[in-house]
Design goal:
393 residues, 5 helices, 12% helix, globular, Porin, mainly beta
Amino acid sequence: MKKFLATLTLLGLPVGAVFAQSGRAQTTPAPATPPAVTQTSGGADAPSGYDKIWDRFTRWYDDSSNPVVQRVLFSGRFQHEFAAVDADQGDLDEWNTRRLRLGPRITLFRTFTLHGEVELNPQEKDPLYVRFTDLYLQWSRSGRLAVTVGKHSIPFTMDGATSSKDLLTIDRSSLSNNIWFPQEYLPGVSVSGRAAPWVYRAGVYSPGRANREFGEFSGGAATLAVVGYDFANALAVKEALLSGNYVHQNADPDNTFSRQLEHIASINFRVEADRWGMRTDVSRASGYLGQSDLWGVMAMPFVNVTRKFQTVGRYTYLASGDPNGVQLATYENRVVRGRGDRYNEMYLGANYFFYGHKLKLQSGLQFADMNDRANDGGAYSGLSWTTGLRVSW
């Protein structure tokens, strides 16, 4: 515990210094009601320094007069972090390159987008190449309809439908890590769009035996349906999106791109005003081939303290009908490999946005407790701290 607290103190000092320096640098009084934390690139009046740097780095080609190729962008993300765990069952501390992905996004014939990204692991010589995440062709004339074919994300549950670039907590909740498909990217066909205030998505995916590219198409099929309605105007807020997600998956032992869950239902609500917001998730899933049924709830309030500084809290509860149905999160799982049946978690974190979600520091303390009524190595109780840099383009 002393080692953990000492590490937390020493590594927390630079982050605190950044926040303090930001406060001292403010020479004009803050408005009485500061607007929300900037989620996108710089201001509308003139390009910022970050705008110019990102544009030069990512915009490889841009010519609207070319009838074939209009634009080539370089896309990707780099996420590096330090994690420390102090649990009754053991300790852990490590630096980790959590995600490194990169690839081109090409606009063709004005209505097509060809996007490919590979995931790399610079911490290991073999394999450096981990997998293709995205490799798809998308057609769209407007935001009302997009048709996507190839390997792309299957977004459901609150955190599962949020890109790792845009997470408010440094990692996804255990609800999503258990009920969603953490591989995230599956080969398939989907249609999606927004006709305000409605949003929708429907897709059919192949969750069969996984490999580093498209898989072997040897399992069943997974179908996804999402319908949402934005109550923002009625509630006089920036966003108030209520969404229902449903996934059906054919029970097949070859479905290794996914979890062994046959039916999944999830109700999500995300509301955001200028100064505050809340995200919630209530999900239930029925398992197969030994995986117990699961249900869970998650609530995540946040406060935009300034334009750049945000605080976040989260509570997660997850339970399985039978023993050994719940898995622990990434770093907790490295301390305790077993499974349990009832999981409680409380998270308190802070985010500092240098350039919206494209360049930010995130830090979070998490207390978690796992009950294991089978008493076969899945019990866990501990405190963890993760802090990291998130860069995306």
